[in-house]
Amino acid sequence: MVNNSLTSLFRYNEEELVGEKMEILLPKEIKDKHIHHRESFNNSPERKKMGQGRDLSGVDKEGNKIPVEISLNHMTLGGELYVMALVTDISERKASEDRIHNLNAELEQKVIDRTNKLKQSLSREMELNELKTKFVSMVSHEFRTPLSTIL
Predict the structure, then answer these.
(1) 69, exposed or middle or buried, with CB in 10 Å at 0-12, 13-18, 19+?
(2) What does the buried/exposed string (b/e) look like for 29-67 if buried means 16 or more CB atoms within 10 Å of the residue's CB?
């Protein structure tokens, strides 16, 4: 069974999905691995949230990847196992995370640039301070000699 949200998200109609394995909605690179995971889940079902700590994606009818979050639940009716998958489109969240990541990278670069400018300014300030100290010392010495003679 499928609902309107799933058919809308993956751009299939109900007739195209009913009777198919769920791997029709998965990227090619994980379809084979998923068959084993699905069979393992069916052998010992448990409520679980999939993909913790990693990104999951589905594939729509046109082959476009869709970032998703998936939760599984199961029930047994009449001795038959039923598994319900709650699939949530997280495209907007991923886009926001990408924007935040890019903004953080820009901010880090600005901090590095400004830190370098500050280091250069500090270095220049230290050079000027050293020149001032040398100048004052030299002027003091140059004035002391004639003043000593005058005194």
Answers:
(1) middle
(2) eeeeeeeeeeeebeeebeeeebeeeeebbbbeeeeeebb
DSSP letters spanning the chain: ---HHHHHHHT--HHHHTTS-GGGGS-HHHHHHHHHHHHHHHHS---EEETTTS-EEEE-TTS-EEEEEEEEEEEEETTEEEEEEEEEE-HHHHHHHHHHHHHHHHHHHHHHHHHHHHHHHHHHHHHHHHHHHHHHHHHHHHHHHHHHHH-
Q: What is the pLDDT of residues 106-136, one digit of tens each?
A: 999 999 999 999 999 999 999 999 999 999 9
CA distance 84 to 1: 9
Residue pointed to by tokens 């068959």:
35
From residue 37, how far is each of 13, 33, 129 by CA, in Å? 26, 7, 70
Q: What value does the mean pLDDT take over residues 86-93? A: 93
Instruction: Give the length of the chain.
Output: 151
